[in-house]
Amino acid sequence: MTNADPYADLTNEKFDSILLEIVGEQSSGQLLAIEGVYEILSEHFNDAVLEDWDAGRELAEVTN
Asked: Can you give the pLDDT of all 64 residues of the chain as single tens digits?
């Protein structure tokens, strides 16, 4: 019986390609539900979220 690694031919590029395909099939809500993903993305996009919120608030103030 051989103990050959069944993943020996799996390159980083092929792994990444398969991973991108799997991730692309998920909704943003599913991805954010993965432990740690929300924290990373909310920190990374913090300024953009605040800018969008400010822009929406300013638009609401102008239209009211």
From this structure: 567 999 999 999 999 999 999 999 999 999 999 999 999 999 999 999 999 999 987 777 777 6
Q: Is 36 exposed, middle or buried (0-12, 13-18, 19+ CB in 10 A)?
A: exposed
Question: Does residue 48 fall inside a structural domain?
Answer: yes
Q: pTM for the whole thing?
A: 0.71
Residue 46 domain-assigned (yes or no): yes
Q: What is the total count of domains within the chain?
A: 1
Cα dihedral across residues 29, 32, 38, 41: positive or negative? negative
